[in-house]
Amino acid sequence: MRHILIRAGKVTIRARLLATPTADRIWNALPINGAVQTWGKEVYFRTPISHDIEPDARVVVSKGEIAFWPDGDAIAIGFGATPISKRGEIRFTSKCNVWAVAIDDVDQLKNVYPGELVSVVEAEAGDAAWHNGTSHRDGHHAPHHMHAALCPSVDEGGPGG
């Protein structure tokens, strides 16, 4: 089973990867670094990878599902309503590939702000970070550095617009 840590600002979320082509592509690109953008109750960030829409891609996701937004080459994590959500849903403007499921409560993402650095790294069950989020194992892959200049402004919208 493959696990990751997503760190944004002072928040760390542990997640389990699903068996999907998108999950494989993201796993092989780790570590991924970027700058947070927000859109309603959604955090997203650009990645150095591209991937097509998978057959089971969705516009509406469940809380805790971690998605890849093919239209923006971005990882998106919804934790509540976006500006186009209908009652009780997390809605993006275009289909996203669900590739992981959060183990920790994604509501803590409300404490993450645009421009904060975000990283996605491989985690192992024996790692201290897996248990308390205080450290991480540096993967053997070369880091993919992303810059805020590559990300749209908050006004441009994310997977939601």
Summarize the structure.
By secondary structure, the protein is mainly β. The protein contains 2 helices and 10 strands.
Alpha carbon gap, first and last residue: 33 Å
> Regions with pLDDT < 50 over 5+ consecutive residues?
133-157
**Which strand-content bin applies to the residues?**
35-45%
Specify the number of helices: 2
In which range does the helix fraction lie? under 10%
- How many strands, which pairing sense, and closed or not: the largest β-sheet? 10 strands, antiparallel
The averaged pLDDT comes out at 83
SSE succession? EEHEEEEEEEEH
Coarse shape: globular
Count of DSSP E strands?
10
Structural class call reads mainly beta
- C-alpha-based Rg, rounded: 14 Å
Helices and strands in order:
Elements: E1 3-8, E2 11-17, H1 21-29, E3 32-35, E4 37-38, E5 42-46, E6 58-61, E7 65-69, E8 74-78, E9 90-102, E10 117-123, H2 128-132
Antiparallel strand pairs: 1-2, 1-10, 2-9, 3-10, 4-5, 5-8, 6-9, 7-8, 7-9
Report on the architecture of this protein:
This protein is mostly beta strands. The protein has helices at residues 21-29, 128-132, and strands spanning 3-8, 11-17, 32-35, 37-38, 42-46, 58-61, 65-69, 74-78, 90-102, 117-123. Strands 1, 2, 3, 4, 5, 6, 7, 8, 9 and 10 form a ten-stranded antiparallel β-sheet that branches. A hairpin with a 2-residue loop joins strand 1 and strand 2 (11-17).
Annotation keywords:
161 residues; single chain; mainly beta; 2 helices
